[in-house]
């Protein structure tokens, strides 16, 4: 198998796997793996490019939550690049319960084309 064919096969497999992982009725939603209660969640906007291409995907974002409950830092740690900015923009608007210390965790967003 040529290198070019192998790369295409891997890329298609990654897209297919992302599509199989994407679930739910909402075009995009986030699931947190952080030990703070979320008070306000903002859903990411499904990108127009992804809508035109009818693609699905998953994005993982590592966040640091300040003591006041705001997201202090958000960093992409994996996922489909088409959805990265939408996930980062949304999670920065999330608000958590207050605490005495900062918290760090990973939030996963799954994107499905709107019905």
Please provide a written account of the structure.
- This protein has one domain (3-111): TonB (TolA/TonB C-terminal domain), CATH 3.30.2420.
- Residues 11-28 have low confidence and may be disordered.
- By secondary structure, it is of the alpha+beta class.
- It starts with a helix and ends with a strand.
- The longest helix is centred in the first third of the chain and has 19 residues, at 3-21.
- The chain has a four-stranded antiparallel β-sheet with strand order 1-6-3-4.
- The chain has helices at 3-21, 48-53, 84-91; strands spanning 28-33, 38-40, 57-65, 71-79, 95-96, 103-111.
- It contains three helices and six strands.
- Strand 3 (57-65) and strand 4 form a beta hairpin.
């Amino acid at each position: 198998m040529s290198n070019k064919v192998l790369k295409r096969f891997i890329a298609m497999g990654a897209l297919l796997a992302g599509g199989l992982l994407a679930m739910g009725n909402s075009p995009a939603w986030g699931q947190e793996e952080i030990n703070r209660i979320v008070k306000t969640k903002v859903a990411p906007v499904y990108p127009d490019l992804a809508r035109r291409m009818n693609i699905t995907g998953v994005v993982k974002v590592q966040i640091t939550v300040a003591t006041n409950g705001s997201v202090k830092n958000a960093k992409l740690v994996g996922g489909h690049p088409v959805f990265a900015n939408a996930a980062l923009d949304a999670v920065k608007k999330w608000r958590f319960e207050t605490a005495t210390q900062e918290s760090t965790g990973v939030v996963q967003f799954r994107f499905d084309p709107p019905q």
